[in-house]
Amino acid sequence: MKMRSIKDLSPSERHVVEYILNNLNEVSNIGIVELAEKSFTSTSTIRRLCAKLGIDSYIDFRLQLSMDLKSYMKESIIKEAAIPVKKHDSMQDIIRKVSYFNAKSIIDSKDINDVKVFNKVVELMTKARRWDFYGIGPSNIVAKDAALKCLRLGIDSSAFETNLEMFINAKASEPNRLAFLISYTGETGDILGVAKELMLRKVPSVSLTGLSDNPLKKICKYNLFVDASEPADRLGAMYSRTSTLNVIDVLFTAYINTDYVKLIKRATETYVPKTYNNK
Questions:
Q1: 164 in the same domain as 69
Q2: pTM of the model
Q3: Which of 3, 39, 53, 239 is 20 to 30 Å from 160 at the Cα level?
Q4: Angstrom distance (rounded) from CA 45 to CA 47
């Protein structure tokens, strides 16, 4: 941020800068009078500070601060995520590092996807008679989570666990279905086999895979990408799973917004509280 390096400031202007830097999230949402009161300065001091920063008005300053804050937070997450977990890390270190890794995987997935593809996939979701989710191993857990969301919304779906069930389902598919093929590497043999069966039957297929030149991406017409920085010693595809779940959450949220009242009503009706029991 430019405020950190600017030199030619009066003591009162410097006090405003210190208050802003210590309260970044708050300042982006308050007016000039309130900032003057909280920093024990004046509105004229704040206006002079804006002028020295080359900004025409306080409103423009708040907009610039908001953009700078987003960039600063993203850079901080990326920087923290670059620090690997070490053998003798404390629990506090592990919590911080794994959390930053997961946050980075979500941010990366947001940046590498095309909004137009999201829109097209959601359009396909509204037209399909049935949604089928295919995934092996950890990806099957993601597929089952998606199928559970479908159950809540009254959507016919599948998320079979065995490769035999997946192949039978693919062979029985018709063009009025929609298939989601989940494979971080895009090289999982069974998933590639299923994708080819679906292609033969002209079933619209969406891949959720890493941003690489992989075979799955070439077979599927629509491709959504997940974080491609999974380390070699990954445990259960931790970060790719997180980013894939996020992409699916985006799709379901956008789908709900296509008929909000109806679908929220369904989700409310199928909600099962944690206190539910079988008595």
A1: no
A2: 0.70
A3: 239
A4: 5
